[in-house]
Amino acid sequence: MLQPGDLATGTVPFGHRPALIVVDMSYGFTSVESPLGGAFDSQVDAMAQLASCFRQRGWPIYFSTVVYHDEHTSSVFRQHLPVLNMLRPDTHWVQIDQRLAVQPHEVIVEKTVPSAFFNTGLAELLAAAAVDSVVIGGLTTSGCVRATVVDALQYNFPTWVIPETCGERNLQAHAANLHDMAAKYAEVVALPQALARLAALK
């Protein structure tokens, strides 16, 4: 919904072969036991519904997880947020939440910064799979979801953000960033509407 100061937005046609990008629904973010996590059970459940829709249609799903293999990668980001150092490859925290039931053919991309596109090869994977649009959700709304949405736009993909699948520890930041993404970068589509529109794609 437009607010004072927002620019008018146009209608962007969605594609016929979308991909689902699940941003950082690893235990480091989905578990209340993690300092990075929160009470995001409803978001995980909503994402599982969305993933089921994609699997039924044979559309690709890509998962991202933050992993640090050494002490030097993305050092500025980690100095700013030292808690990120817990995301090491030998830990439970970097594994995708089992409730999302990652399938053997589905791709998990490792990343070290907010965007799932940056230095991961994700754009090339989408091109190789003939993807023409993307649906994005995950954790957290104001950080890695937003960064991934901005990059999806910059790679020229029509993009939907599903708010029920997005979680944020700061609810004001959650609402503000969903509004900002809708105002500038993507279409924010409620889960029931998204499922109906996806089911109608030929």
Major sheet size, sense and barrel closure: 6 strands, parallel
Judging by the overall fold, what is the CATH architecture?
3-Layer(aba) Sandwich
Strand elements, count: 6
Name the CATH superfamily assignment: Isochorismatase-like
Listing every helix as H and every strand as E from the N terminus to the C terminus, the arrangement reads EHHEHEHEHEHEH
Low-confidence runs? none
Please work out how many helical segments DSSP would assign.
Answer: 7
Helix/strand structural class: alpha/beta
- Could you name the CATH topology? Rossmann fold
Q: Strand portion, in percent?
A: 15-25%
CATH secondary-structure class: Alpha Beta
